[in-house]
Amino acid sequence: MKQFNLCFLGFGNVGRALARLLIAKSGELRDQYGVEFQVTGVASRRIGWLAKPQGANGSEGFKVASLLANPSLSEDALALSNIDEWLREARPDAVFETTSLNPETGQPAIDYLRAILQARAHAITANKGALVYAYRELAEVARVNHKRFLFEAAVLDSAPVFSLFRETLPAAKLRGFSGVFSSTTNVIIETMEAGRSFEEGLKTAQELGVTETDASHDIDGWDATVKVCALASVLMNIPLRPDEVVREGVRGLTHKQVQAARAEGKPFKLVARAKSAGDGKIVATVRPEQIAASDPLGNVRGTSLAIHFELDMMPGLTITSHRPNLQSTAYGLLADFINAVRT
Residue 90 in contact with residue 82, Cβ under 8 Å? Predict the structure, then answer.
């Protein structure tokens, strides 16, 4: 049995869902994997950098249930100024990084993840921006420090995408992929198909909790574009930047268009595509397309997401995440933690 110090960098909806999941799965972690844990650090824009290391003033770390109630009122916590002080005092074995996406630079998540790995802690993130702008660098920092840099929750919630290739598809070459990566645009289009407004569809998506903090990231295709770039960088080993992707969001779709497409049996979806063009280049697009029911992506409805891979070893492989939620994303982070500490 080994006890691990865990830290949360970002404590919004995903971080809190992960905290609840850690409580629910603590018995299985202990009995099946020999893992016990304590939370020694939590940080966010709202509460600042708080650490509560074991042994400080008799402390045994944060109580996870108390964190969920009100992390800023934890007694005996050290209030620190920056990530370096925080890591030094919290002494984490693993840090869950769930800060907001910056689709233009990937910062400050990249700097945070680098610092975590240099502090010799496993870095587990849901931030796809870091994969787009610094995947190779962070993977190398992890290798040098003998730690894991893992990110299964970054693209398709907890669906095994990155680990699928890392663990079960050796020597398979990815030629291209297509996917439906935006629950928000699915909901908006289906709301419009039913004769209601674009705004009603967006409100519904927000109420379901599937929309990015800045809804324009979903509506204008930025979120799907960054996911395409993250997948290309990691799975195809070809760096791809958002400005290299031909991007069109769903703002221009009219009720007449979406209703006619549904009547035709080929409804619109915001589809992301990337394909190898040879010579280390990728052709990538994110745009509304009409999709037939016979297409691998044809049955993706509601908040569900899917990705279809084209491989040299098989003509097609499709993974669908049915109605993912915050717990799904949190599970991706938890699975990465288990894989990091048991290998």
Answer: no
| Reported confidence tier of residue 57, pLDDT bands at 50, 70, 90 | very low
The residue written with tokens 């097609």 in the block is 316
What are the structure tokens assigned to 10, written together? 């970002």
Place of tokens 């894991």: 148
**pTM more than 0.85:** yes
Other CB atoms within 10 Å distance of the CB of residue 189:
24
Nearest C-alpha neighbor of 230 from the set 308, 135, 156: 135
3-state SS, one letter per residue, for 195-212: CCCHHHHHHHHHHHCCCC
Distance CA 238, CA 221 (A): 21
User: CA of 290: how far to CAs of 115, 149, 176, 192, 285, in Å?
Assistant: 44, 37, 19, 15, 14
From CA 180, how far away is CA 337, in angstroms rounded?
Answer: 27
- Rounded Cα–Cα distance for residues 241 and 299 (Å): 29
